[in-house]
Amino acid sequence: MILYGNEKALSELGKLLPDSKTILLSGPWGVGKFLAAQQAALAVADLGDTITHRGFFGVELARYLIDCSYARAMGTKGKAFVVECDEFSTEAINAILKVIEEPLPNTYFFLVSSVELPSTIVSRCQQVHFLRMSPPEIVQALVATGMAFALAEQVSHAGSVGAALKEYSLGEVRTNVATFLNAVHAQDMELIVKATKEWGRLEVEVLANKLKMLSITDPEHRQDYFEVALFLQRAATCDRLTLVLAARNLMQRNIL
Prior knowledge:
The protein is an alpha/beta fold. 56% of the residues lie in helices and 11% in strands. Strands 2-3-4-1-5 form a five-stranded parallel β-sheet, covered by helices on one side.
């Protein structure tokens, strides 16, 4: 996959390899740090092992990485670890200090973070800092994923591809919710079923919040809106049956 923007950071990363064994990629969320780390890891590990992790970095994972770092590599060049450190426990950070400070031969660590890490970690790493992306860079990256140019321009102010995709996704969710409410108003059950075909938990949460807002702006039907919103939030699943029941409930109350 092609990386857009941050040419300086990518150049610095390339110059550090293969001599530097522990590298911290820092900067805003969604600008391509993790992808850059993955590509660098594949390059240095060659036919060896590459282990990646995103999400909470806890002590059990830290111990697992330590064990893997001491295990013999399968390939010709070695092992590379790519670890996202946006959420972490102090115990996990402390556990890996020694192994990242004195990595075994042909073993590489790429730490990726959008937050400030403890100085004990930072001081043991070569740091490559990524910056916010410009609107033209974001547009270029989004168009490459298949997004229409006009839509890419609308979210290009977000500062990163990740943030732009998140904003686009939320906008799409709001459109889906508006379509649902219009279908309820028209009492078009066929359209309701069609509109909710691929809904997930996010759409349900946005719908519930929208109904709560309506309960504030329409005092006459406050209780009606609030009860349906509560039904959605308490639902164990966000399947189509739940949404159809909510739609029927709204239609029976005749409040849209």
